[in-house]
Design brief:
This protein is of the alpha+beta class. It folds into 2 domains: 103 residues, Pseudouridine synthase I, catalytic domain, N-terminal subdomain (Alpha-Beta Plaits, 2-Layer Sandwich); 133 residues, Pseudouridine synthase I, catalytic domain, C-terminal subdomain (Alpha-Beta Plaits). 19% of the residues lie in helices and 28% in strands. The chain has 5 helices and 10 strands; from the N terminus they run βαββαβββαβββααβ. Strands 1, 2, 3, 4, 5, 6, 7, 8, 9 and 10 form a 10-stranded mixed beta sheet that branches. A hairpin with a 2-residue loop joins strand 8 and strand 9. Helix 1 crosses helix 2 and helix 3 packs across helix 4. It is globular.
Length: 267
């Protein structure tokens, strides 16, 4: 058996999310059907991180095992020929060692994008979250810095989150303005259900002046989701990249240059 790794880009607007769901259109189902045609046998894919309905990916990482011989370009070109326009395989590589898309990952990177202007965008429909009130990106960035490090993120997890532990290690959060757009770049060892969207919702309230900069610190101590802000829409959320140890030979996204030294200890 060979293990193949793929980088996958998708527009999540018309999907129920990553995971198979009966009678619904999922990324996993769509990708498996396309790859099964190339392999001429059933293919099951494992992803680095399951995304929710409406969430996009700049570079999701998946792996699958097959006992057929195909050139690497065949998995990408053949797979893409069988995929709809809103899913694309952007690279393919044969796995080294005991690589696992989910369990070998050291860190994940997400990007949340907010269009901050009086009118919604026709061209970026379902690609960004729209916010009419003027946001203060500098205040949002300052508030986000309280979340860096290892914390109990109970105030930022969905009430139905099934993770056994609320603790996560936040590596960095950068919030900045680019013209009419506010961007939040965020990386952690792993994320709780709705964690990024809940953080975005909290920071947006701070950016609008509804809460003080230290509200994020207070919410960490309270450990109560019911007292935190709204869950921001899925439209603006992108899984940006996944970080793996050097031994697996995968190209790293430049954003991971910001990772602290202790997050690279397995390299």
């Amino acid at each position: 058996m060979k293990r193949i790794i793929l980088g996958v880009e998708y527009n999540g607007s018309r999907f129920c999310g990553w995971q198979w769901q009966p009678s619904k259109r999922s990324i996993q189902q769509t990708l498996e059907k396309a790859l099964s045609k190339v392999a001429n046998q059933p293919v099951v894919v494992i992803c680095a991180g399951r995304t929710d309905a409406g969430v996009h990916a700049l570079e999701q990482v998946v792996h699958f095992d097959v006992d057929v011989e195909r050139e690497l370009y065949a998995w990408m070109l053949g797979g893409n020929s069988n995929l709809p326009d809103d899913v694309r395989i952007i690279w393919a590589k044969e796995a080294v060692g005991d690589f696992h898309a989910r369990y070998s990952a050291i860190a994940r990177f997400y990007r949340y994008t907010i269009l901050n202007r009086p009118a919604k965008s026709a061209l970026l429909h379902k690609q960004v979250t729209w916010c009419y009130p003027q946001l203060d990106a500098e205040k949002m960035h300052q508030a986000a810095q309280f979340l860096i490090g290892e914390h109990d993120f109970s105030s930022f997890r969905a009430q139905g989150c099934q993770s056994k532990s609320p603790f996560r290690i936040m590596h960095f959060i950068d919030v900045y303005r680019n013209g009419e757009t506010i961007v939040m770049d965020i990386s952690a060892n792993a994320f709780l259900h709705h964690m990024v969207r809940n953080i975005a919702g909290v920071l947006m309230e701070i950016g609008m002046g509804k809460q003080s900069i230290d509200w994020t610190q207070s919410l960490l101590m309270i450990k109560n989701r019911a007292l935190a802000g709204i869950t921001a829409p899925a439209d603006g959320l992108y899984l940006g990249a996944v970080y793996y140890p050097d031994s697996f030979g995968l190209v790293k996204h430049p954003v991971f240059n910001k990772l602290p030294a202790d997050a690279r200890r397995f390299d």
